[in-house]
Please model this.
Amino acid sequence: MLFVDPLTLAAGAGDRNALLTLESLRGLTVIGTRSILGISNISFGLPNRALLNRTFLAMALSCGLDAVIANPLDESLMSCVSAGNVLAARDPGARRYIAAFSGKERSEAVPTPRSAGSTGSVDLKEAILKGEPDTAMMAGRAFLAGGGHPMSLIQERVLPALEEVGRLYECGDFFLPQLLASSEAAQGVCRLAEESLLSEGNTLETRGTVVLATVEGDLHDLGKNVVAMVLKSRGYKVVDAGKDVPAESILETAIREKADVVGLSALMTTTVERMEEVISLGRARGIPCRFILGGAAVNADYAEKIGADGYAQDAIEAARLVDLLLAPGRGGE
Model:
């Protein structure tokens, strides 16, 4: 494997030297050539060299730097490398970063699946916890091939695994990338169960229909998208109405989809009033669904004030709130 070193020009020897080095890195990236730099030369002849070194390293990583010649015992510099690898998409699922800075290796909280073709329910649970969709699918197929019913696959295998994912996330042993990976693995197994039922002439009954929307004037949707993935993995039909959605459109979607729950999200304090507008209009029109809130701009007190049926701080809490609202005797069948 060939690496090209364009040479780090000392910043103290010329005002544009650092920029020239970065331009060289960008050029190497464009032509598909791997790059390497001896990073410490950037600070030669200047005070507080460590600060300059790690700042320049961060800039170089953003320009496509592939490898660095540096002191591996410099913790602040290596921390910069770890963070840079996440931001440059070189650390899938931020696994190495999480292992380095969460204080716990993922393997401490989650056992490694014994094999992709194992048939035991524990293996399927482990695959979901590890966020390994291929392994989870193979374990799910083995379960069905052994005579297991598709609904049992979901209710007795997938949902308990997701409960454990929720516990790990809430206690700080799991982080967002792990939550998403586990939800993706679980969704794959749910689709497998649905395909099995359809092949037998049956259909997979959802646990309920949830419409999600970021209210009008707000363009933030990451939190909403995470909630959607978690709810889908738990067997709910999720209709994503999008972001910056007017109240009328949200309610029209709720009516058309016969929603059991409408989840409203807002990150900006200037848009929270739109939540109250949606709920007030929905109540006035007698739309028979529950309204729940989420997002950084709201809290439980505000949800109660405007007549919402609940508030969730994160995706796991949202899923549990929907479970509670749609439980038998609380609005569920």
